[in-house]
Amino acid sequence: YMMRVTISVDVTRAFVQEGANTFSSRPLVSIDIGGAFSPLDNLEVGITNYRLGSSGPVTGQSMFPIVVSPIGAFGDMPIYVRYSFLRKDYVEMAADFVLHIPTWTNLAATFGAPVRIRVRDTVSIDTGTELTVLSNGAGLNVELPFKFTYNPSPAGFLFADSGFSFQNLARNVLSNSFYDSNLAFPLARNQVFIPLAVGGGYTHVVKDIVMLDVFARFGWNPFIYINPPDGSNVSVVPVNESWLLSVGVLIHTSPILHSQ
User: Fold this and answer.
1) Which residues of the chain have pLDDT under 70?
2) Beta-carbon neighbour count of residue 215 at 10 Å?
3) Terminus-to-terminus CA distance in the chain, angstroms?
4) DSSP state of 259
5) Which of 101, 161, 194, 235 could form a disulfide with 231 if both were Cys (CB 3.0 to 4.6 A apart)?
6) Residue 253 has what pLDDT?
7) SS3 state at 234
8) Sign of the torsion angle spanned by Cα atoms 102, 141, 78, 75
9) Which residues pair with 85 in a beta bridge?
10) The dihedral sign for the CA sequence 225, 143, 30, 69
11) Could you tell me which residues come within 8 angstroms of residue 139 by beta carbon, excluding any fewer than 6 positions away?
12) Contact 127/115 with Cβ under 8 angstroms?
């Protein structure tokens, strides 16, 4: 079986505290520790904000999401199950279900269909669809992620991810109730935008037993608005205030490594 532990420091510049209608002067910062394991070849379960082949990690979500700025808090816990139903040499497809336990914000559930395409031995593309149902007003997020990964060497990797994000659709409660860690910015409904991030890292194998992926990711969410929110300026996040940063390590153990 496979086991994976994720340890990361995640930073999101644009943050609105519950009950406030303006930006916090300090970014949202959390130390996120998550884990996952595969009891079967085609089944994976875990509690983490980092799922391979899905959209980027969310600040303040994990098995142990320790929020340290601008307030001290314990974040939300995304419990997920992934079932892989197609595995070929050049393409893999799976089905995801994620239940977001509201230990900090609101309850939510995500249904996903991640797809990984291997263009070459050194190039892969991750895409798919994610639908997140938001409680407290029955809103909906639709994520269409796209990630390009290139391995310039057996141990090094570079990536860029983007896509289309439709957030807070059809929410039927007042804006001051939009308090969800799954939202890029909680003060407006029917947001449509394009995120963008780049990053890279290095893989190190320890005694053919444990594999370490050290990585860094920097981007903007949102980067380009397609349908800017109506209302005052605080409803729109300018690009210079929408940056985010993740630095961390993925620790894997796998029978594939043991057999080598």
Assistant:
1) 1, 18-21, 173-178, 186-187, 228-236, 254-260
2) 19
3) 15
4) H
5) 235
6) 84
7) helix
8) negative
9) none
10) positive
11) 133, 168, 169, 170, 171, 172, 178, 189
12) yes
CA distance 178 to 17: 11
The DSSP code for 138 is T
In the block, residue with structure tokens 């797809």 = 115
Sign of CA dihedral 25, 199, 5, 135: positive
Q: Which residue has the tokens 């043991």?
A: 258
Q: Checking DSSP bridges between strand 139-150 and strand 191-206, what pairing results, if any?
A: unpaired
Closest C-alpha to 131, from 144, 118, 121: 144
Residue 101 amino acid letter: I
Q: CA-CA distance, 132 to 166, in Å (whole number)?
A: 10
Q: Could you read off the pLDDT of 155-209 as tens digits, one per residue?
A: 999 999 999 999 888 877 665 556 788 887 766 778 889 999 999 999 998 887 8
Helix-, strand-, coil-residue percentages of the chain, each rounded to 5: 5, 60, 35
* CA separation for the pair 52, 157 (Å, rounded): 14
Find out whether 224 and 194 touch, Cβ atoms under 8 Å: yes
pLDDT for 55 equals 85
Please give the structure tokens belonging to residue 240: 């210079």
3-state secondary structure of 63: coil
**Which of 114, 125, 124, 110 is CA-nearest to residue 83?**
114
